[in-house]
Design a protein that fits this description.
The structure holds two protein chains of two kinds.
Chain A (H helix, E strand, L loop, with lengths): L2 H19 L6 E17 L2 E19 L3 E7 L4 H17 L23 H4 L3 H18 L3 E19 L4 E19 L2 E2 L3 E7 L6 H14 L9 E7 L1 H16 L1 H5 L20 E4 L20 E6 L2 E2 L6 H7 L7 E2 L7 H6 L8 E2 L4 E3 L6 H6 L3 E9 L8 E13 L2 E5 L4 E5 H4 L3 E4 L4 E2 L3 E3 L2 E9 L2
Parallel strand pairs in A: 8-15, 14-21
Antiparallel strand pairs in A: 1-2, 1-4, 2-3, 4-5, 5-6, 5-7, 8-22, 9-10, 9-14, 10-11, 12-13, 15-16, 16-17, 16-18, 18-22, 19-22, 20-21
Helix pairs in contact in A: 1-2, 4-5
Chain B lengths: L1 E6 L2 E9 L3 E7 L3 E7 L4 H17 L17 E5 L11 H16 L5 E18 L5 E19 L2 E12 L4 H4 L2 H15 L7 E8 L1 H13 L4 H4 L20 E4 L20 E6 L2 E2 L6 H7 L7 E2 L8 E2 L3 E4 L6 H6 L3 E13 L4 E13 L2 E14 H6 L3 E2 L4 E7 L5 E7 L2 E8 L4
Parallel strand pairs in B: 5-7, 9-16, 15-21
Antiparallel strand pairs in B: 1-2, 1-6, 3-4, 6-7, 7-8, 9-22, 10-11, 10-15, 11-12, 13-14, 16-17, 17-18, 18-22, 19-22, 20-21
The chains are: A alpha+beta, B alpha+beta.
Chain lengths: 465, 433
C-alpha cells in the first residue's frame, strides 16, 4: 500500500470514529494521526550494514469526559474496528481517570503559511541513492586519514503526513519530509582510541552534503589524537554549538515550559520580565521559518505555529505554552504542543513518539541569536580555558546543574588551542552561567529542535581527570 | 501497553497502547542485509514488505567485498511463555491506577518540602513470533511491569531530585513483596533529607559504589564497550580478547536466563538461544556480546544478544541481564579500609563512549573518613575510563542484587543487572570544592 493510500484509509476510519464521539458522554475529543515511510541506511564499523524501510501509520485519541477527566489510547491497526475500539478504550480510561484542572483543546484559528516542509525528491528517494550517499560519507571520512573508523552512521529519509481533528472543528493536515545524515567516528593513534566524534545534519530536502559530514568527522578524529591531561582550574569555557544544544538546551527547555512554570517546577517561575541572563542573550522559538527541521504550520494538537521571543537581551519575556498551559496562565498560546519531543523520558522511550503518546510542551526551533564573534575570535581572547565542543552526560533539569564529562574538548592558553583534553569534567549551574556569558559566536548550527551558536562563559570550573 | 502516570495526585497520563506489525529481514548472497517493516498485516502488504526487504538487501551488494558465513542455527521449534502469577487480564484499569496512586500517597508522607511527585505504572505484554528460512518457528510471550517514582524536594529556592523504580519480567506479583507506598515514601524522604546537604567535593576518590549505581556503571562502562558492534570498531576493549582488562576480583557475564530479570529472553530476535556468556573472567577478557553477523566476522558462536525493541526496527546487539559475580567483602569491610573517600548511592543514568570512557550520575553520597561513614552529601556525576577504573577495583561485595534497567542505544531496550557493591577509584564532578 502506498503512503497516500495508507493515509486516506486511516483518515477515513478516524473521521468515522470521531463522529461517534459526539453521541457519547464525552465532552471533548481529539485524534492525532500520522502515516510515514522511512528509508534508513545504517553504517556499522565502516561498512554499510543494513538498509531499512519502515512503513508506519496510526492514531492516538484523547477523550475528555465530564470534569476534565482524560483518557488516551492509540493503535496502528488499520481497520475501522480497531480504530473505533481505541477510541472506546480512551473513553473508558477517561472515566477511571482524575480531573485535570484547566484542560483545554485548541479552537479553529487561521494558520500561518510555512514553506519548505515537503520535498518531493525526499519522498521519491530510492534506496540505491541512499546507499550511495552513505558510501560517499564513509569515503570522505576515511580519505581524511586511514586510521578513522566510522563506528556508526545513518542516512535517513522520511516522508509522511500528520493530521489533527478535534470536536471544536479543528481539522488539519500537513505533508512533511525530513532527511538526516549522521556519522560517528573514532580513530587509534599510538594505541589510544579517541572518543566519539560525530556530525549530523537535519534537513527537509534532499540537498545533502555527505562529503562535508564525512570530512568534518575525519578532521574531528584527527584533532583528538594525542590528548593530554589538564589539571583542575577555574577559567573560560567556550561551549561549541553541540555542547550548547545538548546541555544548555535541556536546562532552558525545562525552565521555559509553561506547565513547569505553573506548577512551580521551573527555576524561572515568577521571573517573567526579570533579567535572567546577560544582555548578549536573545532566544526565540520559531516554528515559522522556511524549511527548518522543526518548522510546522500547526503544533501537534492543532494550534497555529508562532515565532515567540522567550528571552530578549537577557530579559525573560515569554514561556512556551500549549492550549492547556496558555489557558491556565492567561498567556498567549505559543503553539508548542509536541508529540515528538527530544530529551530522554523513560515512558516515552518505551511507548514511542507521535500518535503513540499525548503531546507535551517542547520547543519547535529554539534559536539562540548569533553574536558577532567568529570562533577564532572567541578563542583568541581566552587567557586560560577550554573549548568544549562535545559533552557527555545529562544536565539536571530543575536545578540547572551541569556536571558532565568532556568528550571532545581542547585546552586554550593565551588565545591559542594547545592540545585536545583527555577526560575531565565541567561542573556548574547553567542559570549562573547565563549571567557569565562573555561572547556568542556566529557559528550557528541546526539540531533537531535547536539552532545555536558557540557560547563563551567565564569562571567555569574544570575538573581534571 | 498500559501507562498510568500520576503527577501530584492527578492522573496526568493514562494510556492504552496497542501496536502490531510485521518485519522481514533478508540476507542477500550471504553479504548484505535488508530490513522492512509495516503495520499493515494483510497478506498483500506483508508480501510487499518482503519484496522491499529483498530490494533493500540488494542495494548494498556492490559494496560488499567478502561473504559472511553465518553459523547455522536453524530448525528451532519453541513456544515459550515466561511464567506470570498475576496476569494483567485479571485486573481492572482502576487496579492499575491504584498502584502509582499509592506510591504518590506514600511520597506525600515526605512532608511539606516535597514539591513534586511523579509516579508511573507501566505494563507491557509482548507476543512475538519468529519464522526463518532456516525453518525456525519460535513463539515467545512475556509480561513486564514497572513502577517509577520521581520526587523533587524544594526549600529556600533549592531543588533536590530523587528517584527509584521496581521492574521485572512477570505480572503484578511484583507488588506482593514490593510496596508502592513504601517506595514513594522512601524516595520522598531521600529527596527531603538531601535538601540541606552539601554538594560533594570534586576530584579523584576511592569510593564504595552501591549496587544501584554499580548497575549503571556496569551497563555503561563495561556493557556497552563489550557489545561487539562497538567493540569491533577497535576502541576500549576491541582486539583485547585474552588480555587482562580489569582487576582479577572482577568476573562479568551476560545471561538471558535470569528469572524475573527484565532482560529475561529464551531466544533473541535472530532466533539464537540466549546464553550465559562469560565476558570477563577474573579480570581477563573472554568474549563480546554478539549477533549472528558480528559472530560470523570473528568466527565465534553467536551469543543471543540480537534484540529489536519491536517489530518496526531491526535487531541490534543489546545486553540482556548483565552481571558481576559476587565477591567476598561485606559492606562494612569495604568502608573500613577507606581512609578518605565516599560512598556513592543511587543512579541518574549515564552514557558510554567507544573508547570505554563513561559518565553517569549518582543521587547521593556519604563521606568516608578513616573507615567510617560520615556526612551525607548530595549527588553529582562521575566520569572515567572503564578499563582504568575497573583495574582499581579492590573489593567486590558478597551480596548481589537484581536491578531493573533500560537502555536507549538507537532504540529502546529493557534489561536486567545483577550487581554487588564494589570499591574503586573514580573522578567525581562535584561542586563542593
Amino acid at each position: 500500500m502506498s503512503l497516500g493510500e495508507n493515509w486516506n484509509i486511516l483518515k477515513g476510519f478516524v473521521h468515522k470514529a470521531m463522529l461517534t464521539l459526539e453521541k457519547r458522554e464525552a465532552t471533548e475529543g481529539e485524534a492525532f494521526f500520522t502515516s510515514t515511510q522511512t528509508t534508513d541506511i545504517a553504517i556499522r564499523n565502516s561498512e554499510v550494514y543494513t538498509q531499512n524501510m519502515v512503513c508506519d501509520a496510526g492514531v492516538g485519541f484523547r477523550v475528555i469526559v465530564r470534569r476534565n477527566k482524560i483518557g488516551f489510547a492509540c493503535t496502528n491497526s488499520l481497520s475501522q474496528k480497531a480504530i473505533s475500539e481505541a477510541l472506546e478504550k480512551a473513553s473508558s480510561i477517561a472515566r477511571a481517570s482524575s480531573e485535570v484542572p484547566n484542560f483545554a483543546l485548541p479552537r479553529v484559528t487561521e494558520l500561518p503559511q510555512v514553506r519548505g516542509l515537503f520535498n518531493r525528491e525526499v519522498e521519491e528517494m530510492d534506496v540505491d541513492e541512499g546507499v550511495d550517499i552513505a558510501k560517499r560519507m564513509l569515503n570522505a571520512a576515511q580519505s581524511v586519514d586511514d586510521r578513522i573508523v566510522a563506528k556508526s552512521g545513518r542516512v535517513l529519509f522520511e516522508s509522511g503526513r500528520r493530521g489533527v481533528i478535534n470536536t471544536f472543528g479543528v481539522d488539519l493536515e500537513e505533508r512533511e519530509t525530513r532527511s538526516v545524515l549522521y556519522l560517528d567516528g573514532s580513530g587509534e593513534q599510538d594505541g589510544e582510541v579517541t572518543g566519539s566524534c560525530y556530525d549530523a545534519t537535519f534537513n527537509r530536502g534532499a540537498d545533502v552534503n555527505p562529503e562535508k559530514i564525512g570530512e568534518n568527522v575525519g578532521k574531528m578524529v584527527v584533532e583528538m589524537f594525542r590528548p593530554q591531561h589538564v589539571e583542575s582550574f577555574e577559567g573560560t569555557v567556550i561551549f561549541g554549538p553541540e555542547a550548547v544544544s545538548n546541555q544548555f538546551f535541556t536546562v532552558l527547555v525545562d525552565a521555559l515550559k509553561g506547565d513547569n512554570v505553573a506548577a512551580g517546577r521551573s527555576a524561572w517561575t515568577n521571573k517573567r520580565g526579570e533579567q535572567v541572563a546577560l544582555e548578549k542573550l536573545t532566544i526565540r522559538d520559531n516554528a515559522l521559518l522556511k524549511g527548518r527541521f522543526a518548522s510546522r504550520s500547526f503544533d501537534d494538537e492543532g494550534s497555529a505555529s508562532q515565532n515567540t521571543c522567550v528571552i530578549r537581551k537577557g530579559r525573560l519575556e515569554s514561556f512556551l505554552h500549549d492550549a492547556t498551559s496558555a489557558d491556565a496562565s492567561g498567556e498567549k498560546n505559543t503553539g508548542n504542543a509536541s508529540r515528538f519531543p527530544g530529551g530522554f523520558d523513560m515512558i516515552r522511550a518505551i511507548v514511542g513518539n507521535g500518535y503513540r503518546s499525548k503531546p507535551e510542551i517542547y520547543p519547535s526551533n529554539l534559536m539562540i541569536q548569533p553574536g558577532n564573534k567568529a570562533k577564532r575570535d572567541l578563542i583568541s581572547e581566552v587567557d586560560k580555558g577550554i573549548l568544549a565542543e562535545s559533552m557527555a552526560g545529562f544536565a539536571q533539569p530543575g536545578s540547572g546543574m551541569i556536571s558532565t564529562k568532556l568528550s571532545r574538548a581542547f585546552y586554550i592558553e593565551s588565545g591559542e588551542i594547545l592540545h585536545p583534553v583527555k577526560g575531565g569534567m565541567i561542573s556548574g549551574v547553567a542559570f549562573d552561567w547565563f549571567k557569565q556569558i562573555s561572547g556568542i559566536g556566529t557559528d550557528v548550527k541546526q539540531f533537531m529542535n535547536s539552532v545555536v551558536p558557540s557560547v563563551r562563559v567565564e569562571n567555569v570550573k574544570f575538573i581534571g581527570a | 501497553m498500559i501507562v498510568c502516570r500520576i503527577r501530584n495526585g492527578v492522573v496526568e497520563d493514562f494510556s492504552n497502547v496497542f501496536l502490531d506489525g510485521v518485519s522481514v529481514r533478508v540476507l542477500m548472497d550471504g553479504e548484505s542485509w535488508g530490513f522492512s517493516s509495516t503495520n499493515a498485516i494483510d497478506l498483500s502488504s506483508v508480501e510487499q514488505t518482503l519484496e522491499k526487504a529483498t530490494k533493500l538487501a540488494k542495494a548494498s551488494l556492490p559494496l560488499k567485498t567478502k561473504k559472511m558465513s553465518l553459523e547455522p542455527i536453524g530448525d528451532v521449534k519453541a513456544d515459550v511463555s515466561i511464567p506470570v502469577k498475576k496476569p494483567l487480564k485479571d485486573y481492572s484499569i482502576e487496579d492499575f491506577a491504584a498502584l502509582p496512586l499509592s506510591a504518590s500517597e506514600g511520597a506525600r508522607e515526605g512532608g511539606s518540602q516535597v514539591a513534586e511527585v511523579k509516579s508511573t505504572f507501566l505494563a507491557i505484554e509482548d507476543d512475538k513470533y519468529f519464522l526463518s528460512s532456516e525453518r525456525s518457528k519460535i513463539h515467545q510471550k512475556a509480561t513486564r511491569v514497572f513502577l517509577f517514582v520521581n520526587v523533587i524536594a524544594k526549600a529556600n529556592g533549592a531543588l533536590c531530585p530523587a528517584q527509584e523504580s521496581f521492574g521485572h519480567t512477570g505480572g503484578l506479583e511484583l507488588f506482593d513483596t514490593n510496596s508502592p507506598y513504601s517506595l514513594g515514601k522512601s524516595v520522598a524522604e531521600k529527596a527531603v533529607k538531601l535538601l540541606n546537604k552539601r554538594a560533594p567535593p570534586s576530584g579523584r576518590f576511592r569510593v564504595v559504589i552501591d549496587p544501584t549505581l554499580c548497575a549503571t556503571l556496569l551497563h555503561e562502562a563495561i556493557g556497552h564497550p563489550l557489545e561487539a558492534d562497538i567493540a569491533m570498531t577497535g576502541g576500549g576493549f576491541g582486539n583485547r580478547i585474552g588480555e587482562v582488562v580489569s582487576s582479577e576480583l572482577v568476573s562479568i557475564y551476560d545471561n538471558g536466563h535470569v528469572p524475573s530479570g527484565l532482560g529475561y529472553f529464551a531466544y533473541d530476535d535472530e532466533g539464537v538461544e540466549c546464553k550465559h556468556t562469560i565476558l570477563i573472567e577474573q579480570g581477563k577478557l573472554k568474549s563480546f556480546m554478539h549477533d549472528r553477523t558480528s559472530a560470523a566476522i570473528l568466527g565465534v558462536p553467536p551469543t543471543g544478544n540480537a534484540h529489536a525493541w519491536d517489530y518496526s526496527v531491526e535487531p541490534l546487539i543489546r545486553q540482556t541481564n548483565i552481571g558481576i559475580e559476587m565477591g567476598d567483602s561485606s559492606f562494612e569491610e569495604m568502608v573500613e579500609d577507606v581512609k578518605e573517600g565516599m560512598f556513592l548511592e543511587g543512579t541518574f543514568g549515564g552514557q558510554a563512549d567507544v573508547n570505554a570512557d563513561f559518565t553517569f550520575g549518582f543521587q547521593n553520597a556519604r563521606l568516608i573518613q578513616n573507615g567510617r561513614l560520615g556526612e551525607d552529601l548530595r549527588g553529582a556525576n562521575v566520569a572515567g575510563n572503564a578499563i582504568e577504573v575497573f583495574k582499581t577495583v579492590d573489593a567486590v561485595g558478597k551480596k548481589v542484587v537484581l536491578r531493573p534497567g533500560a537502555c536507549g542505544k538507537f532504540q529502546f531496550a529493557v534489561q536486567g543487572r545483577v550487581v554487588p557493591a564494589i570499591r574503586c577509584e573514580i573522578t567525581v564532578g562535584g561542586m563542593g570544592g
